[in-house]
Amino acid sequence: MGALLEIIEIYEDSEQARSVRIAAARALGE
To answer: Could you state, in order of their start, the residue ranges of all structural domains in the chain?
Structure first.
């Protein structure tokens, strides 16, 4: 899970941040 959070932080400044967060949320089962 920590790796996912790191990836989200990396993409925070990217236009893909939304897609990454959605994918992470789905992976976490939220």
So the answer is: 1-30
